[in-house]
Design goal:
Elements lengths: L19 E5 L19 H17 L3 E5 L15 E4 L2 E4 L10 H9 L5 E4 L11 E4 L2 E6 L5 H13 L3 E6 L10 E2 L6 E3 L14 E3 L11 E3 L2 E5 L3 H9 L3 E5 L2 H4 L10 E2 L1
The structure holds citrulline.
The site of citrulline has 18 residues, from loops.
């Protein structure tokens, strides 16, 4: 069970530290995960090793990593991010937009709800994937995509606003999810793909428009001054160093073949 009271510990300079990360191990069925690209088939052995690197990266960023076992019923189960959204002390359990993934959220809820003061749900007819939700401090962007519908977005917006978050809802025009091409490498600025940089939902926020070739790496995770990011993007690693952030690159080739990025593989609080 979780440890209520350990959320929100303060680090140096009074900044809130993130403490826990939840991941789910990939199983042999990962090869049958949902995908919409022409990349080669997933190598499950390599995916397992990349997941191990990923867990190490979260630990390097200061997290205690909680590991769920693989469930062969759910090939896409390692993409735990889609099953839940964390809003401070509130855990929001989603209703995944692709019916094949519905049910993944149960094991996630059972394992981590004890860490939170309350657990709430996205309910029918709403559906929402966590990959469509970008939270940075008390700002939240919600994307309406092939996985998240208007009702799901509106439900989350209401839950967020009731808890003090400023919420913007926008249409996802590029990629599977909102966060496929935008992410927060630090706590006050975004990396964004040039094709969506002019979306007015991202007005009034500091952003770095990446080169088109670096688009895959926009999806990243900011954890305790570290930027956990896809390996192979030296320009963005250099950018982190210039900003005083510590880049922690992780090879992601096998998850990319399933349209997944860095943030998809964890829930962090
Ligand atoms: C899917 O299509 O649902 C998975 N193959 C990939 C999910 C990626 N998740 C995410 O971006 N949050």
């Amino acid at each position: 069970m979780g440890r209520i009271g350990s959320i929100g510990e303060l680090g140096k300079g009074g900044k809130k530290m993130r403490t826990f990360g939840l991941v789910r191990l990939p199983g042999n069925q990962l090869v049958n995960g949902i995908r919409d690209n022409d990349l080669p088939a997933v190598d499950t052995g390599l995916a397992g090793r990349q997941h191990e690197n990923y867990r190490d990266a979260l630990r390097q960023a200061g997290l205690e990593v909680i590991v769920l076992n693989a469930d062969e019923q759910f090939p896409d189960g390692p993409f735990v991010e889609d099953a839940a959204v964390v809003l401070g002390r509130t855990l929001v359990i989603t209703r995944p937009g692709d019916g094949r993934r519905r049910g993944e959220e149960e094991a996630v809820e059972n394992r981590i709800r004890g860490f939170f003061e309350e657990t709430v749900r996205i309910t029918e007819p709403g559906c929402l994937d966590g990959g469509d939700v970008l939270v940075m401090g008390h700002q939240m962007w919600i994307g309406i995509s092939g996985r998240t519908n208007r009702q799901g977005a509106d439900q989350l917006k209401k839950l967020g606003e009731e808890r003090g978050y400023r919420c913007r809802v926008t249409e996802v025009r590029k990629g599977l999810h909102l966060k496929t091409y935008v992410g927060a490498p630090g706590m006050d600025r975004l990396w964004i793909h040039p094709d969506i940089a002019h979306d007015e939902a991202f007005d009034n926020i500091e952003k770095f428009v990446v080169d088109e070739a670096d688009g895959y790496a926009c999806n990243c995770r900011s954890i305790n001054g570290h930027t956990v990011m896809a390996a192979g993007f030296p320009r963005l690693e250099q950018w982190c160093e210039q900003q005083g952030l510590k880049p922690v690159p992780v090879p992601m080739s096998e998850y990319r073949k399933l349209d997944g990025g860095i943030s998809c593989l964890s829930i962090v609080w």
